[in-house]
Please model this.
Amino acid sequence: MQETMKRSGGCHCGKVRYEVTASLDQVMSCNCSMCLRKGTVLTFVGKDQFHLLSGEEGLTDYQFNKKHIHHLFCATCGVTSFARGTSPDGKEMVAVNVRCLDDIDLGSLTVTPVDGKSF
Model:
């Protein structure tokens, strides 16, 4: 069981940096057209658990399908380290790409497949 703790992360070039308070007990691999192509592994947190430290001005926003999620990526290196959106209950949330967290051993986590293609 992963404890809830503050973790740091960001993009490849380092322009986008953030801190997130999260447990990594429930990480998921989505098969929607976007996640499948990028290979993201996600965890979701409330807006108040995510703090962007740098790089807001260098983010590019991409939306598709129902346009509920802002897929943000670094305009310099192209890495999508997080996305912003709204959960089904209307609360603002952040989807964090676990692969972009510092010092994470993805092999030690239990990754649950999610059928995002059907949403």
